[in-house]
Structure formats: C-alpha cells, structure tokens
Design goal:
By secondary structure, the chain is an all-beta fold. It is built from one helix and 17 strands.
Length: about 280
Amino acid sequence: MPVKTFKPYTPSRRFMAVLDYSEITKVEPEWDLTEPRKKTGGRNCYGRITTRGIGGGNKQRIRRVDFKRNKHGMEATVLAIEYDPCRSAWLALVQYTDGEKRYILAPQGIKVGDKVMSGPDAPPQVGNHLPLKKIPIGMQIHNIELKPGRGGQLVRAAGTAAVLMSCEGGYATVKLPSGEIRKIHEDCYATIGQVSNPDHENVVLGKAGKSRHLGIRPITRGVARNPVDHPNGGGQGKSKSGGGWQHLTSPWGLLAKGLHTRPKHKYSDRFILVRRDGYVMKAK
C-alpha cells in the first residue's frame, strides 16, 4: 500500500507520512463483532497509575478477531478488508458457508471474493490455517499457536512473517521475525502468508497532536526533573544521558538500559534454539 507524503505547508506536514488506505473496502465495522473499549487512563482497579503516558484519545471499538480459526473443513469467503483501530494489521471479514461471519487477520495479497479454509485437509495456500506439520518447509507463516487449540499468539503485527525451517521429532523449527529460532509443537496451527499492511513501519506521525489522538500523553525526561521527583533529576547544568555517575532508571529506580527482564531460568528456554540476539542456547 502506498504511503502519502505532503508538501510542507505547515511544520507538522513537513515530515508526515500516512497510509492511503487504498486496500480498505469497507468503512463501517460489522457491529455484532465489536465491543466498546473502555479507557483506563493507565490506572488499575484502585485508581493508581500503573502505566504512565496513557490518557485521552479517540473512541475505539474492539473487533473480536478469530485467532483460533476452529471451523475446520468449512470454506469461507472474504467479504471485505477493514481497518482496525486497535492493531496495525488489516482485518478480513469472512463469511462461512453456514452464514456465520468472523474477523481474521488479513494476509498480504488477499482480496475480496477469495476463499480461505482451516483444518488439516486445507490446501497450503495464502490465508489458510493449517497444523505446522502440514505446511511445506520454507513457507512464510503468521498467527502461530504456542499451545494446540489455544489460538494464535505469535507474529500478528503488520507486515510480519515467520519462516518454517523444519519439522521432525514432533516439533517444528520456526524462525521468528525477531531472529529467534524456536521449536513449536507440530500440532499447533499457523496461517500461511505474511500479515497485511507492511507499510505500517513507514508511517510518520508528524506532530504531537497525532500522538494525543492515539491516547499517548507526553512524559517529562527524568534528567529534566528535580531530585525529589526522579533518581536522575538535579545536578549542575544539563546531562543528556544521566551523566557519568548515574545510570538511567525509572522513577522507582529500576534500570532503564541493559537490564535483562527475562527470567534467568524460564520453562520455555528448552524450546529456544537461537535467541534474537544471536546467542545459541545450550542443549539441556
């Protein structure tokens, strides 16, 4: 999908780049497949802020997306390609032969009128949902399950795709978009193809107001605050990166750079062959 740029008539237009939405075929969502999204403002059930920088923004309705694709052996027709305000990828509205309508993640290249199917007997075509053991080696896949029957959890963002490398010993080896290579049970399902809207990474907001429309509020840098407000605050003069005597931290002292947040001994480590940083995991 092409990206639109503008002549710099105003400062905000100078660097702005937006999608032209030429692939979208339906403006209004399927109302029965949506529900209102309640804004939290970053606050938990006690009214305390747990996530800073959240608040305001346009009203949104959540589209109930079918990540399980559990109507096996039943063909569905693509009725429309739609925009989803809560995710970066496009959605495809499909209708099964029994009349039921569902939303699925739209693969790149799918069009209105195409047929899609899920199940072990579905042909290996773009948009079809199959077990990993039934997918040909080397194909691009997305919406990958981690546990059989749980529904797709991996590779759901716009323009992403994983590659099926091998399948043996009851497990499939998959290379994820991050570069991580891991084993996934061969009975887990995945959708063939790349996720739609690959130009999402080229979008430039261009102005602060666009962030506010998305519900993103501004946050003051820690080094610009007073010592009473932040561990990096205070000092004589300016400091771009916290200075030489202190590390960049959160307001509560948690290191902001270089701290490994993944548990040292996680149960899923035995399924990871190569980490996303290229480190080869030792066999256990």
